[in-house]
Amino acid sequence: MPEPRPWRSVRPYAARAVAAVRPAATRISRTARTAVPRVARPVWTTATRITGPRTWRYTAGAATAGLALAAGVVTAAGPWDSTGQRTAERDRAVAQERTGGADHGQGTAPGTAAGPPRPAPSAGSVLAALDGNTPADRTATPLTDVLGPLLEDPALGDRRAASVVDLATGKRLHGTGAGAALTPASTTKIATAVAALTALGPDHRLTTRTALDPDTGELVLVGGGDPTLTARADAAGSASLRTLAADTAKALEKRHLHEVTLSYDTTLYTGSGTHPIGPNDNLAQVTALMADEARADASTSGPAPRESDPAAAAAATFADLLEDHGITASPPGPSKATGRTATLARVTSPPLSSLVERMLTESDNDLAEALARHTAVASGEKADFEGGAAAITARLKQLGLSVEGASFHDGSGLDRADRLTAGLLTDLLATAADPGRPALRSVLTGLPVAHFTGTLSGRYTDGAAGLVRAKTGTLTGVNTLAGTVATADGRVLGFAFLTAGATDARAAQEALDRTASALADCGCR
């Protein structure tokens, strides 16, 4: 059979890429015969979305190179768990000089309908950089010599901290102020993810249900704290308010009920739903009941105007959906499902592992705050901002992590009062990479892939594209990056860079990207 034309066009790139990674794969395979690493090295994937001829060739060649390297890695360490995303939030907070903001990347413009979030990439094959250099071409260099000048870039501001660890050994390879507590911005979500998975497990699902009081005929829509609940016709794997309405109508018809008094229950959460930064397009009011993250437009991701009362809006939509099925409902009001009520129907979210991936890949603030509250509920804390923060801290301590200097005030990182250290962030990454903790694996598989997915989709146009996976963080004057990188000598490192005082967000992001790319490009010690 003749070769397909696309393969003929990229065969030279792929052959060069395979030659580049063959020495590392061979070396890893030999190592497997004599020793088993302490941690399974992650095997990454990239999204299959192709944006143009140049990217198409790059992706095809890189994927072939990844298969070669993955063969060696899997032989040495065994396959990674690959269970199991919103587009990047714009630089809106910086542009508007707000005190709180969100991650900034090249994604869907605010207020536009971009379709449902793409699934976060699960563990596949590592991409080798197609820059013409093979591992043999690079010289092992002390890591401090490589990172030192890059971290001194004035674009990063006047404060910076860094930590780099080998995920296979847990050994710290570099530390610059690794114990200094700085504002982490959205890298806070890494801690939220680890805490939620520890408290609830990767298979936990969030349930929204309806309950009927047989004595009064009151129908209660009970919020389960699932911000991904959707009223759209295409649920795209999320829990569907339409399905819940249809199933509820069927149950009511069986009871010969065609008119109901409709109420809604948000008592799963307590306290104020207003984030300390105040009303903000990056986050809805935090409540146990909302549909489509309370977006008041057709958007599916990024900053957007929000409903002022998400629960009431969701209940009103539910009433309309019941009407479509022949059930007349009264105007809904707040209530509480009592012990007398009987559940009529329920819908559930995707598993927590998938929610964590979406939260990290797309830097979903609504989902982050929901997971912080669910962590609080599971930990016996009040389901409010303070309780979520306390629960996250407690769960990290439970894992044996040092939280000295850390201070949580939310789950999303929008609060500028949050504090984390670079050392804690790399400890979190190392813990998620521990083969003895497979329940935490989605913390790694949810990290955006450089140049390809989420908040990194518009960054790393060459060099380390596909090699870096990292959670971004941006507030006014604050720029952070924490994640993993596959290096030239076949290792996988965890890194965290925290900076503050920058006046140009884009220049700071580019400086951070250069720093992470340097890790990918060297066989550093």
Automatic annotation (TrEMBL):
<feature type="compositionally biased region" description="Low complexity">
    <location>
        <begin position="105"/>
        <end position="125"/>
    </location>
</feature>
<keyword id="KW-0121">Carboxypeptidase</keyword>
<keyword id="KW-0645">Protease</keyword>
<keyword id="KW-0378">Hydrolase</keyword>
<dbReference type="GO" id="GO:0009002">
    <property type="term" value="F:serine-type D-Ala-D-Ala carboxypeptidase activity"/>
</dbReference>
<dbReference type="Pfam" id="PF02113">
    <property type="entry name" value="Peptidase_S13"/>
</dbReference>
<comment type="similarity">
    <text>Belongs to the peptidase S13 family.</text>
</comment>
<protein>
    <submittedName>
        <fullName>D-alanyl-D-alanine carboxypeptidase/D-alanyl-D-alanine-endopeptidase (Penicillin-binding protein 4)</fullName>
        <ecNumber>3.4.16.4</ecNumber>
        <ecNumber>3.4.21.-</ecNumber>
    </submittedName>
</protein>
<feature type="region of interest" description="Disordered">
    <location>
        <begin position="295"/>
        <end position="314"/>
    </location>
</feature>
<dbReference type="InterPro" id="IPR012338">
    <property type="entry name" value="Beta-lactam/transpept-like"/>
</dbReference>
<dbReference type="InterPro" id="IPR000667">
    <property type="entry name" value="Peptidase_S13"/>
</dbReference>
<feature type="region of interest" description="Disordered">
    <location>
        <begin position="78"/>
        <end position="151"/>
    </location>
</feature>
